[in-house]
Write a structure and sequence with these properties.
The chain has a 7-stranded parallel β-sheet with strand order 3-2-1-4-5-6-7, sandwiched between helices. It contains 14 helices and 13 strands. It has 403 residues and is of the alpha/beta class.
Length: 403
């Protein structure tokens, strides 16, 4: 059969968990957007880490109407051989029970567990999305080599590899993972119009500042980030301290939480930022908060292509970001934002000060950014994913049976 036939094709997405994160947002938005008449959708996910909001709860329930979320109790992010084998068996059992015809895995750990489970279940079509490779140079050598060998082996059994950034395709090929014709560039999409609408107008700015308890006229610098080692909150906070020395009355907002949360708050106190910084914790209403910012900052020293910078650009907020990973594929220095060296608080602080001091230049970055981000719209992501599924079904029609 084909996806245009009388019976919907069952597609199972496998992801480590559904806690707040870029890969998780991608899965939820793909599933929310795909045609329910053509695709029957499942999400297989491990337990969400404690203290992390779950995207299948609350406001997201409506968008996932008609999508079956299946818990995989043994699927966890850390390497744990016994639990990993159990997770493979759990995934296999679900795929067999649900007669999954397309298995679409996301990120490194779920990509390995999910595809091994799919192969054990003889699933007809395998798709894997790379949200950044786990096999990077800073990974311990034995782990790096093991992941590389597994990724190479599984790529031979995978029908399509999806990357959200072109750099991940080139890195995968450099590691000997897959063939160039297997790779498909499909950006991780956001609802651009929603962010643009909520980010425009003085009333949205005023409402966002009221929500955050901030004065209406002071400069505000914000960061939507996870408080975890790769996001480099130390550099972020040190750049904030430098800005505060130059810009009178400036206030700072950090949206997000994570394992480094306590240390980040302690560092803010040591830097005497306590009275000028507002910590929101993890939030699901980022689109309504962004209009409060005059500048949005990303200080990561290890990154793929984070959705947060696209969200800020769509909301009309100029971006200052570390030049790491694939950030440069969205932020062109001096044209659509500002890029600085990673782990350089002085450079980051100065870039923030420059934008606060020159509203005209900041406004031009915003105009250029909005023109450049159409490929990051969620509608484009859903359309490209659906087209990929159709092409794979057509190529494997003998392997995709009517439920």
């Amino acid at each position: 059969m084909t996806a245009g036939g009388s019976s919907p094709v069952t597609v199972a997405h496998v992801i480590t968990h559904l806690g707040v994160g870029g890969a998780q947002e991608t899965v939820v938005r793909i599933c929310a957007g795909l045609d329910r008449g053509r695709f029957r959708l499942l999400i297989l996910a491990g337990p969400t880490p404690a203290g992390t909001p779950d995207l299948s709860d609350g406001s997201r329930v409506a968008s996932l109407k008609g999508v079956t979320v299946v818990p995989v109790a043994s699927l966890v992010r850390p390497i744990h051989p016994l639990r990993d084998f159990r997770a493979i068996a759990e995934v296999r059992a679900v795929l067999l029970r649900e007669n999954a015809q397309i298995v679409h895995t996301h990120s490194s750990k779920a990509g390995l567990v999910g595809r091994l489970g799919a192969l054990a279940a003889s699933a007809p079509i395998l798709v894997h999305t790379v949200h950044g490779w786990a096999i990077k140079s800073q990974t311990a050598w034995p782990v790096w080599k093991s992941f590389q060998a597994l990724e190479r082996s599984l790529a031979h059994r995978t029908d399509a590899l999806v990357v959200v950034a072109g750099a991940d395709r080139e890195l995968g090929l450099a590691f000997g993972i897959g063939r160039r014709d297997q790779y498909n560039l499909i950006r991780s999409g956001i609802p651009i119009e929603e962010y643009a609408t909520r980010g425009s107008g003085l009333e949205h700015r005023a409402a966002a500042r009221r929500t955050l308890g901030l004065p209406s006229e002071v400069p505000v610098v914000g960061s939507v980030t996870r408080l975890a080692p790769p996001k480099d909150t130390d550099t972020l906070l040190r750049s904030f301290a430098l800005v505060r020395e130059i810009v009178p009355g400036v206030r700072f907002v950090v949206v997000g939480d994570g394992p480094d949360g306590a240390e980040a708050r302690a560092q803010a106190v040591r830097l005497d930022l306590g009275g000028s910084i507002h910590w929101t914790g993890a939030r699901s209403d980022v689109a309504t908060l962004l209009p409060a910012f005059d500048v949005s900052v990303l200080a990561s020293h290890d990154e793929g292509l984070p959705r947060t910078i696209i969200e800020a650009m769509a909301a009309g907020v100029p971006v200052v970001a570390s030049d790491v990973g694939s950030v440069h594929e969205a932020v062109v220095d001096g044209r659509t934002g500002r890029l600085v060296r990673p782990r350089d608080p002085a450079a980051m602080g100065q870039a923030i000060i420059d934008l606060l001091d020159d509203p005209g230049a900041a406004a031009q970055l915003v105009v250029n950014a909005r023109i450049s981000i159409d490929e990051f719209d969620e509608a484009a992501m859903v359309t490209a994913t659906e087209a990929l599924y159709d092409s794979l079904i057509s190529a494997r029609v003998d392997r995709v049976s009517v439920p």
